[in-house]
Design a protein that fits this description.
heterodimer, A: alpha/beta, Immunoglobulin-like, five-stranded mixed β-sheet, 4 helices, 12 strands, elongated, B: mainly alpha, Four Helix Bundle (Hemerythrin (Met), subunit A), two-stranded antiparallel ribbon, 76% helix
């Protein structure tokens, strides 16, 4: 109590407490990041936009359900490797996944830099042209999940959203 | 027993001791900074009105602008005037007062102040010309949205140099001695943090790769420095809280604690400079490091200072009819609400603007209060009636509180940020309801803001008390 009282009076205690607390919090920032956001770092590999789109188109051609969600094909691929592209200003295609099955989601941008935030996979990634990231996910609860661009990419950025359905 | 000049001055009210050292030339310069600040708000208000016209089908045909891309440009200039120019002009005014107080009204490099003021005015005009002539492309990047045209960038650059000039004059005159008190230290720390933000902008500029597209280039150019500018706004508010607390409770925040708080914030902001060396500017780490700096570096100092002020207000219980006490209380409330909301943000929905509207209105309310209790009296202009001032503060503060809560709830419901009309996709009754709450709060806050601008401009344009 004496320290608290003195810190409110004009003693050096208050300054020491305040400065120490502030600088300690800042210096341990990386640790806080790890504690609060323990998502694993994604695996990345080099691609070209054309090669990635070829794999993506192949998946869509094979597993398209015949439905469109906001003019984007709804695809129901089997567990394993699945593909999703970020393009100004949409994510392509819409994925339909099965509860309790494990998928390796390959993500890439086919034009400019985009962000990818997907709470279902605990993912917050930066998608840079020429590189794809792989995120492993095993959806546990059915529902419709939004994924969003988290890096300003143009005037339509705020509306750049995609969907994943879990059944 | 002899008293030091600082001790003698502290026995007097802050505004009285400041008025004593404000020479005629410095008072004229102060008039210019306050005029620029209020003019920026007035322009921002007019641009907000234009934005409404642009989105209203019948009205927009009456005006001869191309409409497709005009709306975002108006929004961008509105943001830059209402957040950047408004706050930085107030920093200019406070830097002038701190310079006057630390030199007993006889600063060195005095001409620098007037040059800075003129440069800031011209730079603000360049921003306005850019939007009026529909120049460049709109970039709604964070913190400092821009029109991608050389004239607009020149305006921003000129403004940065202008404010840096008045800050450098303060630092040049701020030799540690008896005349440097907590207010002068606080403004010096705030000004230094502003200079740190400029260093961040410059480092970002040099680090941008050649292949980068304009949208991301602007985002990264203003990301780090923009975060540091929010430190500047917060510190500006803390300095004003110091003034308002003295006025409302006749008590000053403990000197060392206050000075330690302000300089520790400057030290935290300085660590942001290191991020440019540590991380690639296009990396996720670069982006996250500055948001982490916010979360862990910014809260402690305002938290402790606001806690101490709140205790003091609870003990003294000043009448809320008093302008200083009212603006201080509302500022504390809005800043606290905004700060708490900041820990529960989404990715790209209206929870983000809910957070920053609340914290920024906390800063605004402090500035509004100080305008009436310090700046206008120092300029010897007749102040509006306390009833009128109270009404503008209550309308603005109450409206912003409702707006922020409504917007935050709408964000949870899934309403995206930076969209209007059909783009908002208000497909559920819940979304619709919260956006109505947001709209009602915004309407009330706008009335309060317009009333504040009207009262202040009327005062600034009136004759000095005692002049014929």
């Amino acid at each position: 109590m004496r320290v608290l009282r003195e810190s409110v009076s004009d003693s050096w205690w208050g300054v020491i407490i305040l400065v120490t607390a502030t600088l300690t919090l800042v210096s341990v920032m990386p640790a806080w990041r790890w504690v609060w956001s323990p998502e694993p770092r994604p695996v990345t590999y080099k691609i070209t936009a054309a090669s990635f789109l070829t794999q993506l188109d192949s998946m869509i051609a094979t597993y398209w359900t015949g439905d469109l969600i906001e003019d984007i094909p709804l695809v129901h691929p089997p567990p394993g490797d699945i593909y999703l592209a970020a393009q100004r200003f949409r994510f392509f295609p819409v994925l339909e996944l099965e509860m309790g099955r494990t998928y390796r989601l390959h993500l890439a941008t086919t034009d400019s830099v985009h962000g990818f935030t997907f709470p279902l996979a605990q993912a917050d990634l930066l998608l840079v042209p020429g590189s794809a990231a792989v995120v492993t996910l095993t959806p546990g609860v059915s529902g419709r999940y939004a994924l969003q661009c988290s890096e300003y990419c143009g005037l339509e950025h705020s509306r750049m959203k995609g969907w994943v359905f879990v059944k | 027993m002899q008293h030091s000049p600082a001790a003698q001055r502290s026995a007097k009210a802050f505004s009285d001791s400041t008025a004593e050292v404000l020479s005629h030339a410095l008072a004229r310069e102060l008039h210019g900074w306050v005029g620029l600040a209020v003019a920026a708000l007035a322009v921002a208000g007019l641009l907000a009105l234009v934005a409404v016209i642009v989105r209203t089908p019948v009205l927009r045909e009456l005006f001869p602008w191309p409409w497709q891309d005009f709306f975002p440009k108006v929004v961008i200039t509105h943001v830059d005037f209402s957040l950047i120019i408004w706050f930085l002009s107030i920093l200019g005014a406070l830097a002038l007062l701190a310079t006057a107080r630390s030199t007993n009204g006889h600063p060195r490099w005095n001409i620098l102040g007037r040059i800075s003021l003129v440069l800031s005015f011209i730079s603000s005009l360049l921003l306005l010309i850019s939007v009026a002539f529909n120049l460049g492309e709109a970039s709604l990047n964070n913190y400092v949205p821009v029109l991608t045209h050389p004239l607009f960038y020149a305006g921003l650059g000129g403004l940065a140099v202008g404010i840096a000039g008045v800050v450098l004059r303060l630092l040049r005159n701020l030799v540690p001695n008896d005349t440097v008190g907590p207010f002068e230290h606080g403004v010096a720390a705030t000004g230094t943090t502003f200079l740190i933000s400029l260093v961040c902008f410059c480092l970002a500029w040099t680090a941008l790769p050649a292949w980068i597209e304009p949208a991301l280039a602007n985002e990264r150019l203003f990301w780090g420095g923009g975060h540091v500018l929010q430190f500047v706004n917060t510190m500006l508010m803390l300095v004003i809280w110091w003034v308002l607390t003295e006025q409302a409770t006749a008590w000053v925040i403990p000197h060392r604690l206050f000075v330690g708080a302000l300089w520790s914030l400057a030290a935290v902001a300085l660590s942001g400079v290191l991020f440019y060396g540590a991380f690639d500017i296009i990396s996720l780490e670069h982006r996250v490091s500055f948001t982490q700096l916010f979360k862990f570096g910014l809260p402690i100092a305002p938290l402790i200072i606001s806690f101490i002020i709140a205790i003091r207000l609870a003990i003294v219980r000043p009448l809320l009819a008093d302008i200083s006490a009212l603006s201080l209380s509302l500022s504390l409330l809005l800043f606290a609400v905004g700060g708490i909301l900041g820990y529960f943000l989404g990715v790209s929905d209206t929870r983000i603007p809910a957070h920053y509207h609340a914290v920024i209105s906390g800063v605004n309310l402090a500035v509004m209060g100080m305008t009436f209790t310090l700046l206008l009296p120092l300029l010897q202009r007749p102040c509006p009636t306390p009833q009128a001032v109270r009404l503008s503060l209550l309308l603005y503060g109450g409206g912003q509180l409702v707006l922020s809560v409504g917007m935050f709830a709408a964000g949870i419901a899934g309403v995206p940020r930076k969209t209007a009309g059909l783009e908002q996709n208000l497909d559920t009754a819940v979304k619709y309801f919260y956006m109505v709450v947001y709209g009602a709060g915004g309407f009330i806050a706008i009335i309060g803001g317009i009333y504040f601008v009207y009262l202040t401009i009327r005062c600034l344009l009136s004759r000095r008390i005692g002049s014929r």
